[in-house]
Amino acid sequence: MDGMEEISFLMIADIGEAKSLIMSSIDKASEGNFDTAKDLINASNKKMGQAHERHFGLIQNEAQGEKIALDLLFIHAEDQLMSTSLLKDLAEKLIIMYEKMYDLKNK
């Protein structure tokens, strides 16, 4: 396995874990478990951070003159990174919305 392939697979693994954590956070928020939902978002942030670090490392290498060969696997990893980032943003808004709904329901 070459360097780009390994980086791509590591990114995809980190992002997959982050996505699972994010989806679980939405489920927990829908059940009224807001502290757990926020903890899951925080855990997903760590996984997303690892993927971002790998990605940014490649950007830094290219900025220093190293030619980075893009392949379909890396493009897939980037796509997963961006869509999961968007999902996280949406999940954070959903948690807030669920909190407000539970507050209104319990008044």
UniProtKB/TrEMBL annotation:
Q: Supply the alphabetized keyword list.
A: Phosphotransferase system, Sugar transport, Transferase, Transport
Q: Name one Pfam family in it.
A: PTS_IIA
Q: Phosphohistidine: which positions carry it?
A: H76
Q: Does the keyword Transferase apply?
A: yes
Known PANTHER family for this protein?
PTS SYSTEM N,N'-DIACETYLCHITOBIOSE-SPECIFIC EIIA COMPONENT (PTHR34382), PTS SYSTEM OLIGO-BETA-MANNOSIDE-SPECIFIC EIIA COMPONENT (PTHR34382:SF10)
**What's this protein's name?**
PTS lactose/cellobiose transporter subunit IIA
